[in-house]
Amino acid sequence: MRDNAKIIEMTYENISDYNDSNQTFEVIGKLLPTYQHDCWSFQEELYEKTYETTYQQEDGLDEYIGNEDSIAFLYYLDHVCLGQITLSKSVTKYASIDRLIISKSHRGKGIGTALLNKAKEWAIEKEMNGLTLETQDVNLLACRFYAKNGFSIGAVDNMLYANSKYANEKAVFWYLQF
Hints:
The protein is mainly beta.
């Protein structure tokens, strides 16, 4: 992490810094997961024509402030919030990454990894056995990011979005065991 960067817990004093202004992301292809012999693997299908998309904005940030079972961390560089991660404890002993957002102009610069490391620290402090999250198969850049950071696919759900505008997408559940 850079010398002029810091990660701090979200509070009511800095909640307005949380920037979930529907940051777009590029869809360059999709993940093609396969389950064989009790093991997940995947390939990628790259699209000839890429496109930008967004997902629904997060509501209810109050639950991440002053709560023993959930938290949000904000990444600042020179007093500007460039990334955020929200986490919550689960009865499965995994800390759930509810949202990880990096400013589009600062992706690929280690901010996401720094926030994941902070999430690991919190999860270990809370006696969790790992991290989990869900992303869509078409968010291939995110899937690559999680795989690069040691996460493994634990499940794929092709019905989760069946009744939504994302009906053609599959939910991919990633896990990082400590």
